Amino acid sequence: NPWLKTTKLVAKPDQVIGGRGKAGLLAVNKTFNEVKAWIMERMCKDVTVAGITGQLTHFLIEPFVPHAQSEEFYVCMQSHRYKDEIFFYHEGGVDVGDVDSKASKLAVPTGLDVSADMIRSELLSEVPPGKQQSLALFIKALFDLYKKLHFAYLEINPIAMIGDSTIVPLDLVAKIDETAAFLCASMWGQLDWPSPFGRAAYPEEALIRDLDGKTGASLKLTILNERGRVWLMVAGGGASVVYSDTVADYGFGHELANYGEYSGAPSTEETYLYAKTLLSMMCRHKHPEGKFLIIGGGIANFTDVAATFTGLIKALDQFADQIKENNIKIWCRRAGPNYLEGLKKLKVASNKLGLGIKVYGPETHITAVVPMALGLVPVIEEPDLSGGSAPPPVRKLIPVKNKVKVPKAQKVPPKGEKHTIVTSTPETKAIVFGLQNRAVQGMLDFDF
């Protein structure tokens, strides 16, 4: 670009960082050589911004736009459940302050439009009259684009309106609604999803993300602490939250290494690749106290537990020596279609490989393996998996000190009613949004 050497420049980190100006991460009104020197001083160096330490790896160079402080404004758009909201403040820049409390706001109910006249009357009273019309038309066009491209948040601070009424956005941050990809992916083009500042992106995360994009199943992986001791391989988005919260509740949040899920009936090969990725990262750094792999999940609706465990066992077989070398203890609690066959296969593989895996089914509470794995409660006896197609024996209740009184039977329903509480009846109509025949059929089969 020829303007690099013919005009003054601005340079700043192009990463997910807020408050760059206050952190001294802006170079303003510099020559190209000065900008290069400024960037090289900071490239791949650790900095701390708002208490978060991370490495600067990407920078942006743009033309410097001379303007007065009085020509800077602030504009922001946010989406809420039933409305969009436009914020405007007649001052902008690094020291704009708490805009939530002092900005003018215009609420636009979902599905409705806004006119330039509404914007001018509701938001621009503090703007010089000669600039109001042009600025109102710009904000109107920006809001139309905001809705068309399904943004969830968009902030320009500052936006400069220089002498000839030219409008120049000087700094912008935005979030898009990823679930709208089916509507406007072609308009978005190729998007890169940057990692939060302070957390490096891992190639393993990219691998699972790529795998997730090629399958109808759901495969997710986020590395929280690659040296952590507690690793999770959890089936189901809801279960993954429950297990992560349970680890944190027991005081091991700082040791939680990953967050993710494998669900939606992944194939044997997909489960193998997912498990292989986790195990390779677990074995990367030894820990003197060893590590834990907790394989968990609720009662699956339509995921074939036996099929997914075949992939898991393949990965365990491949990493058996490294698992023992790194003193990794494996705990499993799983249920769902063909769970008994899957648990049997896992236990046989454990005995064959000498891994000592503790295996539990639906007779055990969904997160009971977490405190047992962490050594916080006594280990309960594993269920007998030697039976045929019959489920394992009913679990033994854990004795508690404070016994809860058994509630009395419900009252008789009022005349003409079937229930005393709001619940489903055979006449209840269920509306499924985003119909997936296989999922719904599996739920119906399971529930009835």
Automatic annotation (TrEMBL):
<keyword id="KW-0547">Nucleotide-binding</keyword>
<keyword id="KW-0808">Transferase</keyword>
<keyword id="KW-0443">Lipid metabolism</keyword>
<comment type="similarity">
    <text>In the N-terminal section; belongs to the succinate/malate CoA ligase beta subunit family.</text>
</comment>
<keyword id="KW-0597">Phosphoprotein</keyword>
<dbReference type="InterPro" id="IPR056749">
    <property type="entry name" value="Citrate_synth_N"/>
</dbReference>
<dbReference type="GO" id="GO:0005524">
    <property type="term" value="F:ATP binding"/>
</dbReference>
<keyword id="KW-0963">Cytoplasm</keyword>
<dbReference type="GO" id="GO:0005737">
    <property type="term" value="C:cytoplasm"/>
</dbReference>
<dbReference type="GO" id="GO:0003878">
    <property type="term" value="F:ATP citrate synthase activity"/>
</dbReference>
<keyword id="KW-0067">ATP-binding</keyword>
<dbReference type="Pfam" id="PF24948">
    <property type="entry name" value="Citrate_synth_N"/>
</dbReference>
<dbReference type="InterPro" id="IPR032263">
    <property type="entry name" value="Citrate-bd"/>
</dbReference>
<comment type="similarity">
    <text>In the C-terminal section; belongs to the succinate/malate CoA ligase alpha subunit family.</text>
</comment>
<feature type="domain" description="ATP-citrate synthase citrate-binding">
    <location>
        <begin position="199"/>
        <end position="375"/>
    </location>
</feature>
<dbReference type="GO" id="GO:0006629">
    <property type="term" value="P:lipid metabolic process"/>
</dbReference>
<dbReference type="Pfam" id="PF16114">
    <property type="entry name" value="Citrate_bind"/>
</dbReference>
<keyword id="KW-0444">Lipid biosynthesis</keyword>
<protein>
    <recommendedName>
        <fullName>ATP citrate synthase</fullName>
        <ecNumber>2.3.3.8</ecNumber>
    </recommendedName>
</protein>
<dbReference type="InterPro" id="IPR016102">
    <property type="entry name" value="Succinyl-CoA_synth-like"/>
</dbReference>
<feature type="domain" description="ATP-citrate synthase ATP-grasp">
    <location>
        <begin position="1"/>
        <end position="188"/>
    </location>
</feature>
